[in-house]
Structure formats: structure tokens, C-alpha cells
Amino acid sequence: MDQQTIKDMWSHNSSTSLAFGNAIHNAMEQWFKFKDSGTEKEYHLPKHPYLQNMVQSFPLKDKECIPEVLVSDVKNARVGRIDLLEITGDKKCILHDYKSDGKIEETVEGHFKQLSFYAHILIEFGWEVEKVVIWNYLDEWKSFDSPVLELK
Fold first, then answer.
1. What are 128's strand-pairing partners?
2. Quick one: fold of 3-146?
3. Sign of the alpha-carbon dihedral angle for 8, 13, 17, 23
4. Which end of the chain is more exposed for a tag (fewer CB within 10 A), N or C?
5. Per residue, what are the HEC states of the chain?
6. What distance in Å separates the CA atoms of residue 87 and residue 54, rounded to the nearest whole number?
7. What is the C-alpha to C-alpha distance for residues 147 and 132, in angstroms, rounded to an integer?
8. Partners of 139 in the beta sheet?
9. Distances in whole angstroms, Cα of residue 122 to Cα of each of 53, 66, 140
10. Using one digit for the tens of pLDDT, what is the confidence trace for 94-122?
């Protein structure tokens, strides 16, 4: 196989994975933003059956959570976007991230580091972050959690 064909296949695979990940994030954001505004026509749910099942089976779907939270700490030049912020008390929270990785066990530590980076932004502003959680969806949700890791 020639080099360009391999590059093209990798490019297509990358585009497909990115679009799929964006679809998952958009579906979850749609649910959490509009779940209290739903009608009998269920406009707050994605129409695609796979995404609809994913949303309806999410274990936190009825919790008090805020989707796609932008956090920043200008003083320390840090910024990030949290997929889902679960409020657990007064300035207390859990950070959640969605994935759809077939080999999540191999990458989960890196995801914990990413969420811990975001957690430290919140901690700088007086928040207590109880833990960070990675949610991986293949045909069902599987969670992996970690305490907030130290920044290096």
C-alpha cells in the first residue's frame, strides 16, 4: 500500500472519530441544557436512537449538573472546558468527562490528568473538587474515577 493511501485512511479515521465524539458531547449538552424544557415531542433528546439510548442510560442524567463549563485562571495562564460539572454542595463538585474509546484502560490516566488540571483551576477559586470521573460509552456507560492529581 502506498504512503498516501495510508495517510488518507488515517485522516478519514481521525475525522470520523472527531465527529462521533462531537455528536456525543452535543447530545449530552442538549440533554443537560434542555431537559427541564422538554415537551411531549422530546426536543431535549437527540433523534438518533444510538445517541438517545446513550443519553437516557447515563447514570447522572437526573442530577444537578452543568454541561460544557469553561473555566479559566488568567493569573496562572490556565483555561479548560469541563464536559460536565456536578454540583454536590456549596462550592463542592465532581468533574466528569465523556469518552467513547475502545481502549479506555490504556488512556484513562491521561484523562485523569486533564480533568485534574481543570480541577486545580476551580480549587484556585475556593472550590472543593471531590474527584474526577471519566465516563466511557461503547454500548453502555462505564466509569473510572480518581482523586484530583497533583499538578507537575
1. 92
2. Lambda Exonuclease; Chain A (3.90.320)
3. positive
4. C
5. CCHHHHHHHHHHHHHHHHHHHHHHHHHHHHHHHHHHHCCCCCCCCCCCHHHHHHHHCCCCCCCCEEEEEEEEEHHHCEEEEEEEEEEEECCEEEEEEEECCCCHHHHHHHHHHHHHHHHHHHHHCCCEEEEEEEEEECCCEEEEEECCCCCC
6. 22
7. 6
8. none
9. 32, 14, 30
10. 999 999 888 999 999 999 999 999 999 99
Write out the three cell numbers for 13. 479515521
Cell of 31: 440533554
Q: Cell numbers of 126, please?
A: 475556593
Condensed to tens digits (0 to 9), the pLDDT of residues 56-90 reads 999 999 998 999 999 999 999 999 999 999 999 99
What is the C-alpha separation between 43 and 35, in angstroms, rounded?
9
Q: Are 96 and 60 in contact (CB under 8 A)?
A: yes
Look up the pTM and report it. Answer: 0.90
d(CA 57, CA 135): 12
Distance CA 143, CA 104 (A): 10
